Amino acid sequence: MKPSREISDDGRFVRQPNHFTDPLGPPEPGRYRLYASYACPWAQRVLIVRALLGLEDLLDVTIVDPIRDEKGWRVPGGDPEYLSELYHATDPGYTGRYTVPCVWDTRDKRIVTNDFPRITLDLETSWGTEPDLYPERLRPDIDIMNDRLYHGLNNAVYEAGFARDQQAYEEAVARVFSTLDFLEVRLAESEHLFDTLTDSDVRLYTTLARFDAVYYAHFKCSVRRLTDYPALWAYARRLHAIPAFGETTDFDQIKRHYYVTQTNINPTRIVPVGPELDWRL
């Protein structure tokens, strides 16, 4: 599936803005439904936070099929058949990509938000506070870290993978590995990015979990593997050992989504075997 509408004239990938950005209202059992994919790093963030905060009874979830086609994400055995139907029910004129995560309001019959950076913060500040993933004393520092992670790693791997210009690709790759180098030094001295588990750790983990399986080869981020960074690799495995992280990490769905869906990068749709990694501590 080609993100041609998100490629600039100079061959750079420019992610579309999030279209639905209302804040989540107060929790009401049965009212809100999260649509997510185990394959998508942005959606996995919300699944992790939902589990960490114990919000399973307050926020229902539907997991979409990992293979996305031109109609968008399919809802297995569900009503609607495709996530796109909810987008058009909310905004009949919508023309962008149909993205996960998004939150559907079953009472008002509309998508409240597909604003992935904001969804986790809303859950952390308005729906559950134990553990406190966005503590007030750290919020300015978390915001700075999250911005650095997004531009240097979370989104930069996509900028490398979807680039259609050599310079654009090389600039994105340089940002990826300068960020990983920075994180390796930081995590050599600390169990988490800060002195406690925070929203930033969630955002970093979902990219690390996909790095060797997908981004290293598929997105051509091939300078070094995650396993070549001792501190980062140990950190990723520590987080993976926490059920909220490990139980929402499905490497089969991750690989099938990227290698089968993104035919502009992998036209054969062949899913590679491996890598053989032991994520156990």
Automatic annotation (TrEMBL):
Region called Disordered, residue ranges: 1-26
Keyword Transferase annotated: yes
Amino-acid positions noted as binding glutathione in the UniProt annotation, renumbered to this chain: 73, 97-100
Keywords tagged on the record: Transferase
Amino acid composition bias (Basic and acidic residues), ranges on this chain: 1-13
PANTHER family, sorted: GLUTATHIONE S-TRANSFERASE OMEGA-LIKE 1-RELATED, GLUTATHIONYL-HYDROQUINONE REDUCTASE
Protein name according to UniProt: Putative glutathione S-transferase
Organism of derivation: Nonomuraea jiangxiensis
